Amino acid sequence: MNARQLEIFRAIMRDGSITAAANSLGISQPAVSKLLHHMESQLGYALFDRIGGRLVPTMEANLLFADADRVFREMEALKSLARDVGAQKIGLLRLGASLPVTYSVLPKALSAFRERQPEVKVHLHALPKREIAEALLLGDIDLAVTLSLIQAPTVRSEVLCEVPIVAVMRIDEPLAERAEIRPADLDGKTLISYGAHAEIGASMDGAFAAAGRQRDVAIQIASSVGAVPLVREGLGIALVDGLVAWEDFEGLVARPFLPRISMQAVAATNEARPASRFVQPFLTCLRTVLNGQRLR
Predict the structure, then answer these.
(1) Shared-domain flag, residues 49 and 182
(2) Domain check: are 244 and 269 in the same one?
(3) Digit-coded pLDDT (tens) for 163-206
(4) Closest to 37 in 3D by CA, of 11, 8, 13
(5) What is the pLDDT, as a whole number, of residue 75?
(6) Are residues 243 and 168 in the same domain?
(7) pTM here?
(8) How would DSSP label each residue in the chain?
(9) Which of 6, 27, 54, 219 lies at a 20 to 30 A Cα distance from 260?
(10) Torsional class of 236: left (φ above 0), alpha (ψ -120 to 50), beta (otherwise)
(11) Is the domain of 72 the same as that of 44?
């Protein structure tokens, strides 16, 4: 039973006659009769008995109708979905984001995006940069948002903004009274930060060396949000990105670090893979949030 035959069978069962079915489908009565006869020939049994000029469904027809009606409704739903996808009303956006991005600007950007595209499903992968880069190259995500460039021949990157390094500390830390923090201020303090191997590591080491100090990282972290429980516990002061809204974490404050050292918020797509039509609308929302967020 093909889709057209299914439609004819359902219409006859619903409307009770070939004439009524033809009218509801907008085709001729002979065409409906011909299609019904062909369908019965293919099945090898009658679907309707002709009694007193009326069509009476056979037992076989009644057995088929419930599932036939369900299948028809599912086909109609699929057609509607296909139309909505074509009209950009519904779809899928797969995002890969580093943890600092996920814990800062991403929720607001997604909120704005979903207000405009409420039917679009979003798959968010909060991952380390190395895994985000791999997912982007494999085509598992449509857009990557990280705090450094993803270097690959097919990757196209856009620098969204500069993200300065800040010093995050407990509110009861004496240095919290200062408007800014310099390398010399951290003498004798336990330092929580990225390792020397990190992309920002060399710049941070250079800033300390220029001040005649050595950046001695006592607790090394891979992502800035990992510093939250450590600083809260009083384990040290963290030198991390300023993208995260650190004051939103109770008991913590952030102060600008000088000399100014910056990371970059970067959006990346893979030109070797088909692009989701929702990447650019989402990036518009993300840029708006970043432009409205004051970064020290």
Answers:
(1) no
(2) no
(3) 999 999 999 999 999 999 999 999 999 999 999 888 899 999 99
(4) 8
(5) 81
(6) yes
(7) 0.68
(8) --HHHHHHHHHHHHHSSHHHHHHHHTS-HHHHHHHHHHHHHHHTS-SEEEETTEEEE-HHHHHHHHHHHHHHHHHHHHHHHHHHHHTTSSEEEEEEE-HHHHTTTHHHHHHHHHHH-TTEEEEEEE--HHHHHHHHHHTS-SEEEESS----TTEEEEEEEEEEEEEEEETTSGGGGSSSB-GGGGTT--EEE--TTSTTHHHHHHHHHHTT----EEEE-SSGGGGHHHHHTTS-EEEEES-S-GGGSTTEEEEEBSS--EEEEEEEEETTSPPPTTHHHHHHHHHHHHHHS---
(9) 219
(10) left
(11) yes
Same domain, 214 and 168: yes
Q: Are residues 152 and 268 in the same domain?
A: yes
The string of pLDDT tens digits covering residues 5-47 is 888 888 898 888 899 988 988 999 999 889 888 988 988 999 8
Total domains, the chain: 3
Q: Of 87, 105, 134, which residue sits at a domain end?
A: 87
What is the distance between the alpha carbons of residues 93 and 19, in angstroms, rounded to a whole number? 47
Domain extent at residue 11: 3-87
